[in-house]
Design goal:
- The chain has 386 residues and is an alpha/beta fold.
- It has two domains: 121 residues, Aspartate Aminotransferase, domain 1; 255 residues, Aspartate Aminotransferase, domain 2, CATH 3.40.640.
- It contains eleven helices and 13 strands.
- A seven-stranded mixed sheet has the order 2-8-7-6-5-3-4, with helices on both faces. Strands 9-10-13-12 form a four-stranded antiparallel sheet, with helices on one face. Strands 1-11 form a two-stranded parallel sheet.
- Helix 1 packs antiparallel against helix 7 and helix 8 runs parallel beside helix 11.
- The longest helix is centred in the first third of the chain and has 21 residues.
């Protein structure tokens, strides 16, 4: 079996991830911050080590400005609904995942003004198009770091320069890039970074977070939920300091222990090394598929402009038919359809059927890529009648 659906969730995980989760369940198991005994203290230590590892990865100054959530989706909702008010204007791109588009459409119905900037047919965003649409009531720009459909990297550093110049908040959805591409909160000018643990951070599902930059005051943000935090228990009002103000309820201790192990794997391997290796493999895949009859690829050819994710179609075959054939005949697991990003597919001209998506990961091999190219070659030749 060849698994190339890593944009949905990475698999397999590094062995240390499962071991860390089992160790937490067997040897720790307590609720962090809720008790004074040694197991509770040990659980809190695991959580803080995970914050420190995330701060190192994202070059964030203060680990306590990292809020744990269930995933990038919850983080995006927290940032958008926490900071935007009726009458505010927000700018986004036409390549966004529904994790961004759906809460924005909800907020639009509640009185937020929304501008969606069209990207090119390769998913490329012109930063100048962002600046042209900034208005007096613009409060935030929100962009995906890389498209989950085409793998196209958006110019976040160039856009952040605009947001700083106009004193706007900049929210980046790093679901596809955290752990796969270098991210620097300071150099990239990011105010709010939403990340998920179960993709290129190689942690378990149900983990993620929001890095809250220094320009964002936590008292400006409305929590998504209130409740017990283990701190300021004498008060019936929500704490007003990070990270407690946004972390009500018992956290996913075993999951965060697994996330810490995934982060340690990424930090040990090194982001630049991971990026170089995945870039080499996706380039090989692109070159191999380009030569096949009836195969249409989407996104930029230049691997420096993309992550290790590639969408394609075969003339005369539907995406679902192709992916079913790949699994049944070749045991290749991928993802067809709209990938929870209908706006992106409208941009590409692939709506409503979508595309077939291959997404590589740390455990994808060169032999895997060669086999995948051969499998698509057989399907494309059959579709071409050869």
């Amino acid at each position: 079996m060849i698994y190339i659906d890593n944009s949905a969730t990475t698999w397999p995980k590094p062995p240390g991830v499962k071991e860390a989760m089992v160790t937490f369940m067997e040897d720790v198991g307590a609720n962090p911050g809720r008790s004074g005994h040694r197991l509770s203290i040990e659980a809190a230590r695991v959580m803080y080590e995970a914050r420190e590892a995330l701060a190192a990865l994202f070059h964030a100054k203060d680990p306590l400005r990292i809020v744990f959530t269930l995933n990038a989706t919850e983080s995006i909702n927290l940032a958008l609904k926490g900071l935007l008010r009726t009458g505010d204007h927000v700018i986004t791109s036409s390549m966004e995942h529904n994790s961004v588009m759906r809460p924005l459409r909800h907020l639009e119905r509640e009185g937020i003004e929304l501008t969606v900037i069209p990207c090119s047919s390769e998913g490329i965003l012109d930063p100048g198009g962002v600046e042209k649409r900034i208005k007096s009531n613009t409060r935030m720009v929100v962009l995906t770091h890389a498209s989950n459909v085409t793998g196209t990297l958006l110019p976040i550093r160039e856009v952040s320069a605009l947001t700083r110049r106009h004193n706007l908040f900049f929210l980046v959805d790093s679901a596809q890039t955290a752990g796969a591409c270098p991210i620097d909160m300071e150099k990239d000018g990011i105010d709010l970074l939403a990340f998920t643990g179960h993709k290129s951070l190689y942690g378990p599902q149900g983990t993620g977070g929001l890095v809250v930059g220094e320009r964002v005051h936590e008292k400006e943000m409305i929590p998504l939920k209130e409740g017990g935090t283990g701190s300021r228990s004498e008060f019936e009002e929500q704490p007003d300091f990070l990270p407690d103000c946004f972390e009500s309820g018992t956290p996913n201790g075993p999951g965060i222990a697994g996330l810490l192990a995934g982060l340690q794997f990424v930090l040990k391997e090194g982001i630049e090394k991971i990026r170089h290796r995945e870039g080499r493999l996706i380039e090989k895949l692109i070159v191999g598929l380009q030569e096949l009859p009836g195969v249409k690829l989407y996104g930029p050819e230049n691997v420096k402009q993309r992550i290790a994710t590639l969408s394609f179609n075969i003339e005369g075959r539907t995406p679902s038919d192709i992916s079913t054939h790949l699994e049944r005949e070749f045991s290749i697991l991928c993802r067809p359809g709209l990938h929870c990003a209908p706006a992106a597919h409208r941009t590409l001209g692939t709506f409503p059927e979508g595309t077939v998506r291959f997404s590589l990961g740390a455990f994808t091999t060169e032999d895997d890529v060669n086999f995948v190219i051969g499998a698509v070659a057989k399907i494309s030749k059959a579709a071409d009648g050869r």
